Amino acid sequence: MVEIVPYDPAWPQRFTVEQGLLSEALPAALGIEHIGSTSIPGCAAKPIIDIQVAVAEVGAVVAHLRPLEQLGYVYRPLAFPEDGDHLFFAKDTAGKRTHHLHVFRVTSPVPEANRVFRAYLAANPDAARRYEAAKRRAAERCRHSRAQYGAAKEEVMTQLSAEARRWSESAGQQSPGE
């Protein structure tokens, strides 16, 4: 069931705890970051902590799944079949989804796009409100299907991602001190 809840100030701490566990389970991780709506202060979200990890080779993670499995992560190899640089894991606690883990090859452009999107929404309350409204509408219409929920918010997501890229490019072109 897809549920959007008000921002929970405990989400950053939940990420920090998981980050520590993941750094032990994935010692070759080049970075472990909090992404998704739960990483945006004040933004309503599905109460699932999204985490992205960068690694040199995703195949090495697949070859050594046991440490992630011991933390409760289940590998979903068909979640992103079109992207060989992206592994997806889900973690349920007490029968409820609590974490999504996205593992990317360090050369993938997706982690940077996720960082830009997160920064844009954090810096632009109007954009965050539009995203939140789209998520709420999608959850109301597609409460029983995560796939349909994702598709229902895709148009706004694409629009906001384009805005975020322009915003980032514009900020990158300014000289220091501007």
List the helices and strands and how they pair.
Layout: H1 11-25, E1 31-35, E2 49-55, H2 58-63, H3 66-70, E3 73-75, E4 86-93, E5 96-105, H4 110-123, H5 125-141, H6 146-152, H7 154-173
Parallel strand pairs: 2-5
Antiparallel strand pairs: 1-2, 3-4, 4-5
Helix pairs in contact: 4-5, 4-7, 5-6
What structural category arises from helix and sheet content?
alpha+beta
Structure summary, number of beta strands: 5
Helix percent band: 40-55%
For the report, how would you describe the main beta sheet?
5 strands, mixed
Report strand %: 15-25%
Number of helices: 7
Give the termini separation: 46 Å
Order of helices and strands: HEEHHEEEHHHH
Global shape: globular
Give me the Rg, rounded. Answer: 16 Å
Mean pLDDT, as a whole number? 94
Strand order of the largest sheet: 1-2-5-4-3
Uncertain runs: none
Features:
178 residues, alpha+beta, 5-stranded mixed sheet, 7 helices, 5 strands, 19% strand
How would you characterize the overall build of this protein?
The chain is an alpha+beta fold and 178 residues long. It has helices at residues 11-25, 58-63, 66-70, 110-123, 125-141, 146-152, 154-173; strands spanning 31-35, 49-55, 73-75, 86-93, 96-105. Helix 4 (110-123) crosses helix 5 (125-141), helix 4 (110-123) packs across helix 7 and helix 5 (125-141) packs across helix 6 (146-152). The termini are far apart. The model has no long low-confidence stretch (mean pLDDT 94).
In short:
The protein contains 7 helices and 5 strands, in the order αββααβββαααα.
